[in-house]
Amino acid sequence: MIIKARLLVTAVIFSAFTAQAEVVGSVDTVFKVFGPDHKIIVEAFDDPDVKNVTCYISRAKTGGIKGGLGLAEDTADAAISCQQVGPVTLSDNIAQGKAEGEVVFKKRTSLVFKKLQVVRFYDQKRHALVYLSYSDKVVEGSPKNALSAVPIMPWKE
Q1: Residue-wise pLDDT tens for the chain (157 aa)?
Q2: CA torsion sign, 90 to 92 to 94 to 95?
Q3: How crowded is residue 68: how many other Cβ atoms within 10 Å of its Cβ?
């Protein structure tokens, strides 16, 4: 019981430091008689540390009875596209660059052990932000991933 409480507190604290996504839309992929259909969901989130960069993620959402109850495990399939939507300002910690990247988005894709993450890297040589989306599990992750890059350029109105 104490371990579950600690995991919940950790998840709440960590989620406060990553971006929150809003659903843009979805399409059904498989009809389910009982429970919601399987879907592909498109979500958008703004990079919490970079003003005027928005990322769009499409991901699989498992339906059926287990999916409707939140007990299903979603597949590791996801795609990402990030865009500059205004003048970009980099914070000092991003300009320094981190080889391991920084998690900017995290979404649970199973009841406990699996999550979809987006990690941002700063490519200082090419003056670009690189966003990597992937799915991981506590025991075994997936090599499936998607990548998007945003060149940091002067904004033209």
Answers
A1: 444 444 344 444 344 456 888 999 999 888 888 888 888 999 999 999 999 999 999 988 888 887 778 777 778 888 999 999 999 888 877 766 677 889 999 988 877 778 899 999 999 889 899 999 998 876 676 788 999 999 987 767 6
A2: positive
A3: 14
